[in-house]
Structure formats: structure tokens, C-alpha cells
Automatic annotation (TrEMBL):
Keyword Transmembrane among record annotations: yes
Ranges where the 4Fe-4S ferredoxin-type domain occurs: 19-78
GO molecular function: 4 iron, 4 sulfur cluster binding; metal ion binding; oxidoreductase activity
UniProt entry tagged with the keyword Transmembrane helix: yes
One annotated Gene Ontology cellular component of this protein: plasma membrane
InterPro entries assigned: 4Fe4S_Fe-S-bd, 4Fe4S_Fe_S_CS, HdrC_iron-sulfur_subunit, Helical_ferredxn, NarG-like_sf
Name of the protein in question: 4Fe-4S ferredoxin-type domain-containing protein
Transmembrane domains' residue ranges: 107-129, 141-164, 214-233, 239-259, 279-298, 310-328
PANTHER family in the record: IRON-SULFUR-BINDING OXIDOREDUCTASE FADF-RELATED, IRON-SULFUR-BINDING OXIDOREDUCTASE FADF-RELATED-RELATED
Length: 350
């Protein structure tokens, strides 16, 4: 039996949604959406589910992740119901439902809780620096170990269980019986969407935004590999050093453009930025900037007299790795990629 939650609309407001009740179900959003198809139409269906409080239907749906916020639906809506923002809010809500710890929902709904966590991580970095007597060499050594440990821990403790929950909600509980071989056959779709986000390219007038995202994803994942596995801050290999400079520079330049767009609010995507949007893009920008200058100070042999720079970088890194990546907007990148993968698996079964 379908369960109805009459308080769902009120709950969703905490995730950033506006006045979607202004919708009078004209269907204009679905008609104008670049990504909506006969086989997978949205956002009209999701608006209807939200209005009726059909939580289970939304939880089992992949459609909020198939939306890339092209913006036509919000721009063309005759009632200013902003369906694009509704889809974004549903993604935040789904992130909270996938997260077994409950922290994603807490941080999305209550900004003071998020800020408290950020302050606690900052205090933890200061405590760590004091415990090693502010010795730069030891801070660099343990900072590098922290990166490796944080990545492994977040992946095993947070992401794997959450992805299994997502799979359970969208495939198993949805009643889809998938032959085991389909999971392997569709793997190429997972990696293509993860690294290229190619579906976003189908948005009208979105090729430059898609290209920026493509370069950013490649630069971010490459810098992660360069710092963690090639020990960028510790190596003397010229190729690795130059590679790290290029990666961090690309991250900084592209995220500056993203920040500019959110300040100017000229696009539907950037008109209703929430704290999670700002923290994601600003902290990613700071990651690129501080990593670049830490390495530069190492090369000019002046980091010892400017330990504050590495501490600031470590603070940004720790907050990014422990809060924003596992519980913030970064997870959208992961869940969307797996949503495309699960959608492919389900389509192969139909």
C-alpha cells in the first residue's frame, strides 16, 4: 500500500525548496526539459509525488539524479514554481535518506550543526599541530597519511554502505529483478558518467558549463592521485611537480568562475544557492589555491617560516575530507554516477 506523508512538503522546505505548490500541473516543465524523454519524463512527475507526499515513490526513483538542472523548466514555468530547484532539493533529501549516519540530513537542514562540525575539525587540526610541536616535517608527514586514511575510511565506512542503501531503495525495493551479468555489462556506463557527466552536455546552451565540469573532475581526481599516491608535497620529480601545479591551477580557475556565476545569479542554476552550494565550491577553490601555494613555498624553501599556510591548507583539506565530501554536495557527483548506472541496468531488464 502506498504511504502518504502529509508533512513531506514542510520537511522538504528545510532542504531548500521554494513554493512548488504554485504549480498547477500544466506540464510545461516536462515539455521544455532538454533531458526529459518519453521513457523518463520529469520534473512534472516528481512535483506531483512531492505534492502528494509520496516519499517511497521518490525514494525509489532515479529521476531526480537524471536531472542536471539545465534551467529551462524554471525559466519557462508560468507560475514561477521553480521545478529545477525542487529537483535539486529532492537530491539533497535523497542524499540524507541514503546516508546511514543521518549527518547529511542534519547538516543540510541545520546550518549551525554544519558550522559546529567545521569548527570542531578546525580545532582538531590545531590540536594535531600542537601535538607534534608545530614541526613542519612531521605535519607534512602525518598530513599525507591523513589523506590516505581519510579517503579509505570515508569510502569503506560511508560511501559503500550508502551506495548499498541507494541500490536497495532504487532497484531491490522497487521490485526490479536484475540478472547478475547486467551489473558487469553496464559498468562502462558508470565510469563514463562518473568521469564525463556526458548527460549534462545535452542541456541547451550548456557545452561550456559541461566542458568546465569535465576539466574540473579530471583536475580534481588527478590532483587527488598526485597528492596521495605520488606525494606531491614530498617529491622532487619535476614531472609530478609541474603536473600538480597544473591540476591545482585548473581547479582554482574553474571554481572562481563558478563562484562568480553564483554571485551574479544570471542562470537558473545559480539563482537560489544554498549554504551547501557555497561551501562546496568555495572549499574546492581553497583546496586548489592552498595546494598550489604550499608546493610553491616548498620549492622556494620558505614554507618553514610560513607554517600557517600549510596549517590553513590542512584545515581546508580536513573539513573537505571529513564533512563536505561524505555529507555535503560532493556526494551528488557519486550518487548521480551510480544513478545513471542503475538506470542502465534497469533499462536492460525491461
Amino acid at each position: 500500500m502506498t504511504r502518504v506523508n502529509p508533512e513531506f512538503a514542510t520537511e522538504l522546505i528545510k532542504y531548500g525548496v521554494g513554493d512548488f505548490n504554485a504549480c498547477f500541473n500544466c506540464g510545461n516543465c516536462t515539455a521544455t526539459c532538454s533531458l526529459s524523454t518519453n521513457d523518463s519524463s520529469f520534473p512534472r512527475e516528481m512535483i506531483r509525488y512531492t505534492t502528494l507526499g509520496l516519499e517511497d515513490e521518490i525514494k525509489s526513483s532515479l529521476k531526480p539524479w537524471e536531472c542536471y538542472y539545465c534551467g529551462e523548466c524554471s525559466t519557462e514555468c508560468p507560475r514561477q514554481a521553480n521545478p529545477g530547484e525542487l529537483m535539486m532539493s529532492l537530491r539533497r533529501w535523497l542524499t540524507a535518506k541514503y546516508d546511514w549516519t543521518g549527518l547529511s540530513g542534519l547538516f543540510y537542514k541545520y546550518l549551525p550543526a554544519f558550522l559546529t562540525a567545521m569548527v570542531l575539525v578546525f580545532a582538531g587540526v590545531l590540536f594535531f599541530a600542537n601535538s607534534v610541536n608545530w614541526e613542519l616535517e612531521r605535519m607534512l608527514h602525518y598530513g599525507h597519511l591523513f589523506e590516505m586514511f581519510a579517503i579509505a575510511t570515508v569510502f569503506v565506512v560511508i560511501f559503500i554502505p550508502n551506495l548499498l542503501r541507494m541500490w536497495y531503495f532504487t532497484v531491490i525495493r522497487a521490485g526490479v529483478k536484475v540478472p547478475f551479468k547486467n551489473y558487469f555489462t553496464a559498468l562502462s556506463d558508470l565510469f563514463v558518467h562518473m568521469f564525463t557527466q556526458k548527460r549534462a552536455k545535452d542541456c541547451v546552451d550548456n557545452h561550456f558549463r559541461w566542458l568546465e565540469h569535465l576539466i574540473l573532475v579530471i583536475a580534481y581526481l588527478s590532483l587527488l592521485f598526485t597528492t596521495v599516491f605520488l606525494n606531491w608535497f614530498g617529491t622532487q620529480n619535476l614531472f609530478v611537480v609541474i603536473l600538480g601545479y597544473l591540476e591545482s591551477a585548473f581547479i582554482f580557475i574553474i571554481t572562481v568562475d563558478f563562484v562568480k556565476d553564483r554571485i551574479q545569479k544570471k542562470k537558473a542554476l545559480t539563482k537560489n544557492s544554498k549554504p551547501s552550494d557555497w561551501f562546496f565550491v568555495i572549499w574546492l577553490m581553497l583546496m586548489g589555491l592552498t595546494a598550489f601555494f604550499v608546493r610553491l613555498f616548498i620549492d622556494f624553501n620558505i614554507l618553514e617560516g610560513n607554517k600557517w599556510l600549510y596549517l590553513f591548507h590542512l584545515m581546508v583539506l580536513a573539513q573537505w575530507a571529513l564533512i563536505i565530501v561524505p555529507f555535503g554536495k560532493w556526494t551528488h557527483f557519486l550518487y548521480r554516477s551510480f544513478a545513471m548506472y542503475f538506470a542502465k541496468i534497469k533499462s536492460m531488464n525491461s
